[in-house]
Design a protein that fits this description.
3-stranded parallel β-sheet; 13 helices; 11% strand; 9 strands
Length: 374
């Protein structure tokens, strides 16, 4: 139980958990991971029969990580000690764990959310939206990412190397359990109004952003690859459409000014795709994401030498296009140019040359990351 000034409800939660273990014949303990309480929660926990583990680093995730590290059991059940979850109902979690599951999630939307237990914005927008994003990004088989009541095999979760320190810890556990192919299931759970006499530690917009930020940072595909690929394809399509000359649709004429935006889309899209590869390689090297066979195959064919060759080819192509531009300028006796013709030569040359430079630099950077990865 992560704890920060929960003196009003902590004793009740501990007694419920101890009573449940006694009735089920479970040999276990209640750990209170105290995050610097100043209201006497530590003494209440000790008097109620719990083991207090002081966690100096502040944050919901820090408290949970400290408590999980100190746990001595094969299975761990974590839950908030504000009396919003009923610790007498831990048997379904234990049964699912004994069946071989690594992570057993509570799901408040499959169970019951009592009146006043969850703010309207959290219930109908925040939690459903963030859980939907998690399923979309990572294909997680979980409908309630932020449920604070869950059980897991300690050995399995320890192996994930969880790192976050705030409220996003609950999301990190689910995401990494999915990515590392742990066995996950969920059971209906009831959420009741908490028994606090103070506002909750959760801050809607701040912690909602931290959840969203975590989902994006752990998914280079959705953060970099897909947007970059869309921009690149759009830029190439619009550029090819406008290269022969101006195009008129209804009463709107698209000309070389639109071609400039297409060139920008190509360059930004290509760089975004590069960032997707950099992020993936770095995350795998740091143990944040599991190894990816597709990436291994990619590096089997795309080496430093092939990258340098492709970059050089693009540099030469851009230079040759500019030579054509120089020839055109010479035909005008190096005088004023027709922007329509000049820019349709200069822009493709600029794009090709810039892509060549990006490809060469990216090849060297990926080689550096690859050395670390090996």
């Amino acid at each position: 139980m992560p704890c920060l000034n929960e003196s009003k409800t902590l004793g009740t939660c501990i007694q419920k958990a101890r009573s449940a273990m006694q009735q089920l014949g479970v040999r276990g303990e209640v750990i209170v991971a105290d995050n610097g309480s100043t209201d006497g929660s530590q003494a209440i926990a000790t008097e109620s029969g719990a083991r207090v583990v002081p966690v100096a680093a502040r944050g919901y995730g820090s408290a949970l990580r400290g408590g999980i590290a100190a746990a001595r059991g094969a299975y761990v059940i974590m839950g908030d000690c504000d009396d919003s979850y009923d610790f007498t109902q831990i048997e379904p979690f234990l049964l699912k764990l004994r069946e071989g599951n690594d992570l057993v999630m509570g799901n408040r939307f499959l169970g019951k959310i009592r009146p006043g237990a969850m703010p309207f914005l959290h219930r109908y927008l925040g939690n459903p939206f963030l859980s939907w994003l998690g399923r979309l990004f990572f294909k997680c088989p979980v409908g309630d990412f932020q449920c604070g009541l869950r059980g897991f095999r300690k050995e399995a979760i320890d192996g994930l190397g969880l790192r976050t320190t705030g409220m996003e810890f609950s999301t990190e556990m689910v995401v990494k359990a999915t990515l590392f192919h742990l066995q996950i299931t969920e059971i209906p759970t009831t959420l009741s109004p908490d028994g606090r006499d103070r506002p909750p530690h959760l801050r809607t917009w701040r912690d909602g952003w931290r959840y969203l930020r975590f989902l994006l940072l752990y998914s280079p595909r959705w953060l970099f690859l897909y947007p970059g690929a869309a921009l690149l394809v759009l830029g190439l399509a619009v550029g090819a459409w406008l290269m022969p000359g101006p195009r008129t649709v209804s009463s709107v004429t698209f000309d070389y000014d639109t071609l400039l935006f297409a060139a920008m889309a190509i360059l930004v899209g290509f760089q975004s795709i590069n960032f997707a590869v950099y992020s993936k390689v770095f995350a795998i090297s740091e143990g944040l994401l599991p190894a990816d066979r597709r990436l291994d195959r990619f590096f089997h064919y795309v080496t430093l030498e092939t990258g340098l060759a492709a970059g050089a080819l693009l540099l030469v192509s851009g230079s040759l296009i500019w030579v054509l531009g120089l020839v055109y300028w010479q035909s005008r006796h190096f005088g004023p140019l027709d922007p329509d013709k000049a820019l349709r030569i200069a822009i493709p040359g600029l794009v090709a040359f810039t892509l060549g430079v990006q490809t060469i630099l990216s090849s060297f950077l990926l080689s550096v990351l690859g050395v670390s990865r090996q």
